[in-house]
Design goal:
Helix 2 packs across helix 9 and helix 3 packs across helix 8. The N and C termini lie far apart (about 80 Å). This protein is globular. About 55% of the residues lie in helices and about 10% in strands. Helix 2 links the parallel strand 2 and strand 3. It contains ten helices and five strands; from the N terminus they run H-E-E-H-E-H-H-H-H-H-H-E-E-H-H. The longest helix is centred in the first third of the chain and has 25 residues. The chain has a single domain, classed as Glutaredoxin (3-Layer(aba) Sandwich), CATH 3.40.30.10. With about 240 residues, it is α+β, with helices and mostly antiparallel strands. The chain has a five-stranded mixed beta sheet with strand order 1-3-2-4-5, with helices on both faces.
Length: about 240
Amino acid sequence: MSKRGWIIFVVVVVVLLTGLVLISRSANPQIDTSKIDANAIQTASAANGNIADHVFGPTTSKVTLIEYGDFQCPYCGEAHPQLKAITTEYQNQVTFIFRNFPITTAHPNARAAAAAVESAGLQGKYWEMHNAVYENQSTWENLTSETLTNAFASLAGGIGVDKDKFIAGLSDPAVNQKISYDQAVAKKLGVEGTPSLYLNGKLLDTNVSQDLETGTGTKLKTMLNAALKAAHIALPAGES
């Protein structure tokens, strides 16, 4: 190869490598978590794409339950029905927050699923899509490319989301930023697997999540009741 040819080759390689670095940074933006209180409700800011924490229940309760979850994780899918029932029962007493922690090395569609839920959230349908994606996990977990997008768009349409806006939202930089922000907060706490549950800042033992997956969820309810009593908050009807 001539000297001129080598120069052109080197320039092309540098340009390609620079592009790959920029793409990587865009997909996984660096987020400074040093001043973030992971146990507090995260308000909208540039760091999270101006998408605040998604909160189910009161925002001012002294009892807060935070789940770090992966929409393709089979254990999260198994825990979902019990967790949904419990947070619904305690929706007037407990602040429940869901944060994204897609483990894409094991679950290649997890980040796309998180984007689908966040995109529906842009239209005010976050929890409806959150539930639909978990409850239909088996229908989309093995899909790829356009068929995966179509599956999510179908679920979104079923909950009343505008499909065109929904599809546009999947590639919205704010959605990507929100997911990366949640992951950064999780990593600050040392989260490694899903579902990971934190009650008032304390990581709950895996036997609690296992009971949600294969049992009745009684262990979590017992801990919620104890926390509510300690905060002098009346329990839901039927609980003691």
